[in-house]
Amino acid sequence: KVVTAAQVNGVYRYYKSEFRVLALGHNKLKVQFDGIYMTLAKSPNMGYAVGEATIEGNVATFIPPDTQGCKITMTFLPGKLVVKQDGSDADCGFGHNVYATGTYRKIRSGKPKFETPP
Predict the structure, then answer these.
(1) Cβ–Cβ < 8 Å for 112, 9
(2) pLDDT single digits (tens) 14-32
(3) 6 to 16, 53, 61, 63, 92: CA distances (angstroms)
(4) Does the pLDDT value for residue 118 go beyond 80?
(5) Is pTM beyond 0.85 here?
(6) Residue-range domain boundaries for the chain
(7) Nearest to 99, CA basis, from 7, 35, 45
(8) Cα(65)–Cα(43) distance, rounded to whole angstroms?
(9) 2: pLDDT confidence band, cut at 50, 70 and 90?
């Protein structure tokens, strides 16, 4: 099952967390993850990663740069992105309780803007 650049490009959201994805060609994607976990005190814990993923068929593997034991598997389906994180929040360089795992809805198509974290 092969997905086109048009199918993967865009912004995906799950609660307050977002993935931004851009097909680069040659089975590579540029991926940015902005994760937010709201604590009981309503202060956000943040997670951020940007780098290149490798895609085969409709499944991409994203290993955030400078991490050990962190692997994020991204499965592209019509209108959504199913994400599974292997490795802990700390393994992936994310804040406490920030995980990428979830089913993200595509909220915008086309080339996303990649933003640097605040």
Answers:
(1) yes
(2) 999 999 999 999 999 999 9
(3) 24, 16, 18, 23, 28
(4) no
(5) yes
(6) 7-105
(7) 35
(8) 26
(9) confident
